[in-house]
């Protein structure tokens, strides 16, 4: 996905609504998809995605002062907001829209789940994931390894019929 330039971000800072709409349109689907994979509830994911864009708009100065790619900064903001929601008591047992692989993924601890999502679905480098999660590259590698192990463990616990149905649904 092509990055949106700092020029557009400066326009947002100056109150250009069309510039911000361009940002939202560009990142809306990927932000929502990551939110649903992180928290597993469509309604809560929509709220988190909206809050992420509101945060981005309100804190555009922070981005402009940083030397980060916008997508990395946006994903960092989204992860921080998601962690706050989880601390406030978002109950992952209340997953209302979990389909396919999602219920299994929700068994993986949060940071490991985010690392797997960013690695497998968004093809971020270990360095980029470490920036999103505010950790080291080596810890990201550990998160990905341990997250995959946990995911495999959950798969192993499924009976063969459940596993076959799941694999058929996810292609």
UniProtKB/TrEMBL annotation:
GO molecular function, one term: sigma factor activity
Domain RNA polymerase sigma-70 region: 23-83
Keyword Secreted: no
Biological process annotations from GO: DNA-templated transcription initiation
InterPro entries: RNA_pol_sigma-70-like, RNA_pol_sigma70_r2, RNA_pol_sigma_r2
Keyword annotations: Sigma factor, Transcription, Transcription regulation
Coiled coil ranges: none
A Pfam family matched in the record: Sigma70_r2
The protein's name: RNA polymerase sigma-70 factor (ECF subfamily)
Source organism of this protein record: Oceanobacillus polygoni
């Amino acid at each position: 996905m092509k990055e949106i330039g700092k020029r557009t971000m400066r326009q947002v800072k100056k109150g250009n609504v069309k510039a911000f709409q361009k940002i939202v349109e560009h990142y809306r689907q990927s932000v929502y998809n990551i939110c649903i994979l992180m928290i597993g509830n469509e309604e809560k994911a929509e709220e988190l995605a909206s809050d992420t864009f509101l945060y981005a708009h309100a804190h555009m100065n922070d981005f402009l002062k940083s030397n980060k790619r916008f997508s990395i900064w946006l994903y960092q903001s989204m992860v921080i907001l998601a962690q706050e929601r989880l601390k406030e008591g978002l109950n992952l047992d209340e997953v209302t829209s979990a389909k396919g692989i999602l219920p299994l993924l929700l068994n993986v601890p949060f940071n490991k789940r985010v690392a797997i999502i960013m690695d497998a679905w968004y093809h971020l480098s270990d360095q980029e994931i470490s920036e999103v999660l505010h950790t080291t590259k080596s810890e990201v590698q550990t998160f990905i390894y341990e997250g995959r192990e946990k995911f495999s463990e959950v798969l192993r616990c499924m009976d063969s019929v459940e596993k076959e149905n799941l694999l058929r649904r996810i292609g």
